[in-house]
Amino acid sequence: MRLDTTQQMRTEMRLRMAPRMIQSMEILQLPIMALQERIEQELSENPVLVDLRESAPAEADGEEAPAPAPAEPDPDPEPNELESLIGLDENWSEIYDEGPRRSRAALSEDSDRKQDAMQNMASRPRSFHDDLIDQLSFFDCDPTVRALAEYIIYNLDEKGYFLLPLQEVIRDLEGSATLEQAEEALRLVQRLDPPGVGARDLRECLLLQLTPEMPGHEVLHTLISQHLDDLEHNRLPAIEKKTGIPLEKIKEAIEHLRRLNFRPGASFTTDNAHYVIPDLIVENNDRGGYDVRLVDENTPLLAISRSYQKLLRNKQTDPKTREYIQKRIQSARWLIESIEQRRNTLLKVAKAIIEHQKEFLDKGPEFIEPLKMQQIADRVGVHVTTVSRAVDDKWVQTPRGIFPLKRFFGGGTMTADGDEVAWDTIKQKLLEIIAKEDKQNPMSDEEIVEEMGRQGFKVARRTVTKYRQALLIPSSRQRRQF
Which CATH number fits domain 412-479: 1.10.10.10, 3.40.50.20, 3.90.1150.30, 1.10.10.60? Predict the structure, then answer.
């Protein structure tokens, strides 16, 4: 009997924790401007929340703000929870002092100002990743597969492609996933809208968009799966000869092919100027290293109203009002704790990233080190999905410029000397070699591979081709200048 009671208590605790955990994850993922907007919204909706930066002397009339109209109370208020909330009077008041009680006129003016600020504040545009995560919630799947799918979504590039090897995804979720689960997660992501998302290359992106109802489906499938290179170089007679498909049908299929989306992620980009507000600032220190600090000077400093705490303690307060205040104080406390948790997690993650990428900041982008999110998760002591949420849509201002935090992550390859080198370094070397080539006789991908090998970077030809295309560098034939 005692065991059943214990299990029931644990179940109830998990149910109470679920909304709190969801809120913590949401707050962690918000960039600084979106966080400030969220806080302004909470301040306007929850009367027990106050911004300590805006405390002002009471007006001469000394009028108190009226008590809020009671909302629907929780059906079974917990006595222990009530005692805990009342105890906030001792805990929070020692740390934060709300200051003198503000008059009704001051509160009204402050409310109008906040509303104006919220209406004039630019809303955070929904990102490509936001939309995909929302879609993912409609699918029933194993928790591990869902975690893998979220990881894949957060690592899609700006075109909507997934360029990491699945083995790397498994390594980042060390000990908790199999290759079969990673493949299932990728297939799940590839079922989301827009069609073609989650593809590993252009061929797969286009094939994912084909449907049996599409005109010329079979011809299109043949052209995309077997003759994409011939199409790129307009070798239509060669395709006709290899496939036996009449030239007219090939041209007709190409017209349908042009209607497919070559960059599924591009639909979420905007033509408006995008002003980046960094969440963190990295500065040189006198020890030869770097200090990291959060940009939160303009973020409201939240506390729980002392007057509402006293109202909760007052035994003569109407029971419905007490339950309403209890509910609002608990909501406020969860928000304050979530913001503080975001602050601590983001700072720890950023410090670990900067420490790992010191060479990048000292010498430049070509010295970036290979880095996986699991490495930072292990160093900080959190789950890899927490790191993924912490760095999502966050920017950092450094002595080298402003970068997204995700810029510091990336896989690598082994050089001829056995050293691991980041893919970004390979890209930089590729750009350098092509910039120096003979423009009248540009290097083929095979020749680029040989040149990179001579410089100590041993990579496969398909790797050079993939990154050349990712950098929008044409083939050697198309680069030739006469």
Answer: 1.10.10.60
